[in-house]
Amino acid sequence: MTELTKLTISDAREKLAQKEISSAELTESYIGAIEAANDSLNAYVALTFDQARSMAKASDERLSSGSGGALEGIPLGIKDLFCTQGVHSQACSHILDGFKPRYESTVTANLWADGAVMLGKLNMDEFAMGSSNETSYYGPVTNPWRANGSDQALVPGGSSGGSASAVAAQMCAGATATDTGGSIRQPAAFTGTVGIKPTYGRCSRWGVVAFASSLDQAGPITRSVRDSAIMLKSMASVDEKDTTSANIPVPDYEAAIGKSVKGMRIGIPAEYVADDMPEEITALWEQGKAWLKEAGAEIVPISLPHTKYALPAYYIVAPAEASSNLARYDGVRYGLRVEGEDIVDMYEKTRAAGFGDEVKRRVLIGTYVLSAGYYDAYYLRAQKVRTLIKRDFETVFADGVDAILTPATPSAAFAIGDESMKADPVKMYLNDIFTVTVNMAGLPGISVPAGINKDGLPLGLQVIGKAFDEETLFSVGEVLEQAAGRFSPKQWW
Amino acid sequence: MSVDTDTVKRVAGLARIAVSEEQAETMTGELNTILGFVEQLNEVDIDGVETMTSVLPMAAKQRKDVINDGGKPEDIVANSPLTEDHFFAVPKVVE
Question: How far, in Å, CA of A144 to CA of A165, rounded?
Answer without folding.
Answer: 6
